[in-house]
Specification:
This protein is α/β, with parallel strands linked by helices. Helices cover about 25% and strands about 35% of the residues. The chain has helices at about 45-55, 75-80, 95-100, 105-110, 125-130, 160-170, 185-195, and strands spanning about 5-10, 15-25, 25-30, 35-40, 65, 85-90, 120, 135-140, 170-180, 195-205, 210-220. The strands form 2 sheets. The protein has a 7-stranded mixed β-sheet with strand order 7-6-5-8-9-11-10, sandwiched between helices. Strands 1-2-3-4 form a 4-stranded antiparallel β-sheet, with helices on one face. Helix 1 (about 45-55) runs parallel beside helix 2 (about 75-80). It starts with a strand and ends with a strand.
Length: about 220
């Protein structure tokens, strides 16, 4: 078996070190002993976009905010399903991740980063949400490990009551907040409902419909 090779590192603001690893044509981004993402496991990240899009059927020019570039699974799926008139903003906190997307992992992304519908923004997604009153039809968050974060304590503010209020304000009426998590969280589901969202919970697989680990997606529609 081929060994893993460390290609690059990046510091998370106020946190630990990310490591970009490669083994053959497989890539992995790790934090300590935890693998945050793998180029062979993108099914649930793709579902984040496809499930959100189904909630927005009929919107001709949707404006979409994606929190976290990752390995581009959600972005590529969003480009495929939201249509030619969509405007898609991707907020990535760690600038090196954007560099990796245009460098060693460029083949994974294809031409998605240069699609005219896409804006890549090297900022905290929380800042865009706070300044985006009524701006978005969909906000897709694949940040950290979900409500129970691993990489950065500051990410918790996206999932607390105040953060959800900011997100609700950033959505247009009937807009959808889609959130990825490594697993379910009943207390977070209650928090979403208390925050004025109609909530569906969807278990999804990391590889297609049946393969890989089971992950969790919340689809929260703003009334």
């Amino acid at each position: 078996m081929l060994p893993w090779i460390k290609l690059a590192t990046a510091q998370i603001p106020g946190g630990d070190e990310l490591r970009l690893m490669q083994r053959g044509d497989e890539f992995s981004i790790k934090l300590g002993s935890n693998e945050l993402m793998n180029s062979r496991l993108g099914g649930s990240e793709e579902a984040l976009a496809t499930l959100a899009c189904k909630k927005l059927e009929g919107r001709i020019k949707p404006r979409v905010l994606i929190g976290g570039l990752g390995m581009g699974f959600t972005l590529r799926a969003a480009l495929a399903v939201f249509g030619e008139a969509a405007a898609i903003e991707v907020a990535e906190l760690v600038p090196e991740v954007i560099d990796w997307a245009r460098g060693p992992m460029a083949a994974l992304y294809g031409d998605s980063l240069d699609d005219p519908r896409v804006s890549i923004i090297a900022r905290d997604v929380g800042e865009l949400i706070q300044k985006g009153s009524g701006r978005y039809d969909a906000i897709l968050l694949d940040v950290d490990n979900g409500p129970e974060g691993l990489s950065r304590k500051a990410n918790d503010r996206l999932y607390d009551a105040r953060g959800l209020a900011d997100t609700r304000a950033a959505l247009r009426s009937g807009g959808v907040l889609a959130l990825w998590s490594s697993g379910p969280d009943d207390s977070f589901t209650r928090r979403l409902r208390q925050g004025g969202f109609a909530v569906n919970e969807v278990p999804v697989r990391a590889v297609g419909k049946r393969g890989g680990s089971r992950h969790w997606i919340w689809l929260a529609v703003r009334s």
